[in-house]
Write a structure and sequence with these properties.
Elements (H helix, E strand, L loop, with lengths): L1 E2 L9 E2 L3 H5 L1 H12 L2 E7 L2 E6 L2 H8 L10 H4 L9 H4 L10 H16 L3 H19 L4 E3 H17 L4 H16 L3 H21 L5 H7 L6 H15 L1 H16 L1 H4 L9 H11 L5 E5 L5 E3 L2 E3 L5 E4 H5 L28 H18 L4 E2 L21 E3 L6
C-alpha cells in the first residue's frame, strides 16, 4: 500500500503557486503520470492535503459521508488563524462544513429558502442589472468585463435575493474577495462575519420576501450564529464562483472557434458554452473538501486521518480514464459536486450566468477580446480558476 504523504523524492505539489495557476491542466497531466488519481499537495505552505484527480475515485468519496465527512474541527485545531486558506476550510455551523443530522438540518433550511426564489423574477432582475452595467461603459468602446460586468452582476443579484442593503453587501463582497484570494484572509473573515451578522439582525427585525427572511422563518429555527454561517455559504457560492463562471464563459465564446461564431448564429447556445467551461475550467476547480476521521485506503493509497481530501473537479472532469469525451453539451461533470453536498442552487446559477451572458452578447454583438489570450493572467490560489481581468473592445454607438 502506498501513501498520499510526500517523501524526500516526491515533494508535494504547491497548488497555491503561480506556476499552477498559469497552466493547471499541464500540472494535472504531470500529477497523473507521477501519482495516479490521488496526489499529495500543499494548499498553502505547510498545509498538506490529498488532491483527487480521478473521476471514479471522486464520485466514490463524494458519496461516502461515513468515511469522508465534511467536518474539519479536528483538522483545524493544528492550523493557525494566520493560515491563508483557513477561512475557506474551517468549521462553520452550515451545510457545507457539517455532516449527519446537522448537515440535513442546515441543507433542508437552505433548500427551502432557495426554492422560494421566483425564476421569472430572477430572470428579469439579471436582465435589469446587466442592462444598467452595460450602459455605464457602452460609450467607452472598451471595458474590463470582470470588474465592470461579471462582478457587479453577481454582487447585486445575490444581494437583492438575500434582501441585503448595498452598504452591508459591499462589506460582505470585500471580505469574501479577501478570503478567496487568501491575502489577509483572516481580516476578510472578520469583515465578512460582522457584515452578515448585521444582515441577520436587520431581517430578523424587518423580514421581507427574500432568502434571508425565509431562512429565519424555517422550522429549523436557526439562531443568529447559525444564520450568519448560512449566509456565508450562500455568499461564498454566489459571488466569486459566479463572477468567474460568467467571465470564463465569455472568454470561451470570444476565443474558441466552436463558439465565437456559432453562438451569434444560434448554432450553439450560451448554455452549451457554460457547460463546456464547467467541464474544462470550472470556477471552483478544486474544492468539495472532506476530512476522514481515520486512515482510509482508496485503491491501495492510504489517506491520513484528519487531513483534507480535496476533489479536483477540473481534473476529474477531464480524466482520460473516462470513456465518454466531454463536449460542449456534456453535463456529466462534477462541477456542481454530487452526493449529499451537491449544489442546491444549480438551476439558479445557470439562470443567472446564462441570462447575463446572453444579454451581453445581444447588446455588444461585435465585441472582441482587447488583448491576445496569452496576455491574460490567472489569479493564483488552490481552489479557484479565476481571471485577473477580462478586457474587451467594441464599436460604440457614436462610431
Amino acid at each position: 500500500m502506498t501513501t498520499a504523504s510526500s517523501t524526500a523524492t516526491t515533494p508535494r505539489i504547491a497548488l497555491y503557486a503561480s506556476a499552477f495557476a498559469d497552466d493547471p491542466h499541464a500540472a494535472y497531466t504531470r500529477m497523473r503520470a507521477q501519482f495516479g488519481p490521488l496526489v499529495p499537495v500543499d494548499l498553502a505552505p505547510g498545509v498538506p492535503a490529498t488532491l483527487v484527480i480521478g473521476y471514479d475515485q471522486a464520485r466514490r468519496i463524494l458519496n461516502d459521508e461515513d468515511r469522508f465527512p465534511a467536518d474539519p474541527r479536528v483538522w483545524e485545531q493544528a492550523i493557525p488563524d494566520s493560515c491563508p486558506v483557513k477561512p475557506m476550510m474551517e468549521w462553520r455551523p452550515n451545510a457545507l462544513r457539517s455532516a449527519g443530522q446537522e448537515h440535513s438540518r442546515y441543507r433542508a433550511a437552505n433548500a427551502s429558502a432557495l426554492n422560494g426564489v421566483d425564476q421569472h423574477h430572477l430572470h428579469a432582475l439579471v436582465n435589469a442589472v446587466a442592462a444598467r452595467k452595460i450602459a455605464e461603459f457602452r460609450d467607452e468602446g472598451r471595458a474590463d468585463l470582470l470588474a465592470q460586468f461579471a462582478r457587479p452582476i453577481a454582487f447585486e443579484v445575490l444581494s437583492t435575493l438575500l434582501g441585503c442593503p448595498d452598504g452591508i453587501g459591499r462589506r460582505i463582497g470585500h471580505g469574501m474577495m479577501k478570503i478567496f484570494d487568501g491575502v489577509d484572509a483572516a481580516a476578510g473573515n472578520h469583515i465578512l462575519m460582522e457584515a452578515v451578522a448585521e444582515l441577520v439582525a436587520l431581517r430578523r427585525n424587518r423580514p421581507g420576501p427574500d432568502i434571508t427572511s425565509r431562512l429565519l422563518a424555517h422550522l429549523a429555527r436557526l439562531d443568529d450564529a447559525e444564520m450568519a454561517q448560512q449566509l456565508v455559504t450562500l455568499y461564498g457560492a454566489g459571488i466569486e464562483p459566479m463572477v468567474y463562471l460568467i467571465a470564463n464563459t465569455v472568454l470561451k465564446i470570444l476565443t474558441d472557434d466552436d463558439f465565437s461564431a456559432t453562438v451569434h448564429s444560434a448554432g450553439a447556445s450560451v448554455r452549451e458554452a457554460l457547460d463546456s467551461v464547467l467541464y474544462r475550467d470550472p470556477p471552483l476547480a478544486n474544492f468539495c473538501i472532506t476530512y476522514p476521521p481515520r486512515p482510509v485506503n482508496v485503491d491501495g493509497v492510504r489517506l491520513p486521518a484528519h487531513q483534507p481530501v480535496v476533489i479536483s473537479m477540473a481534473a476529474c472532469n477531464n480524466d482520460p480514464a473516462l470513456n465518454a469525451g466531454g463536449g460542449s453539451g456534456d453535463r456529466a461533470h462534477l462541477s456542481w459536486s454530487t452526493g449529499p453536498h451537491a449544489c442546491p442552487a444549480r438551476s439558479h446559477a445557470y439562470l443567472i450566468a446564462e441570462t447575463a451572458i446572453a444579454h451581453l452578447l445581444d447588446a455588444l454583438p461585435e465585441m472582441d477580446l482587447a488583448c491576445p489570450p496569452g496576455d491574460l493572467s490567472w489569479r493564483p490560489g488552490p481552489f479557484h480558476r479565476a481571471l485577473s481581468h477580462l478586457p474587451v473592445r467594441f464599436p460604440t454607438a457614436r462610431r
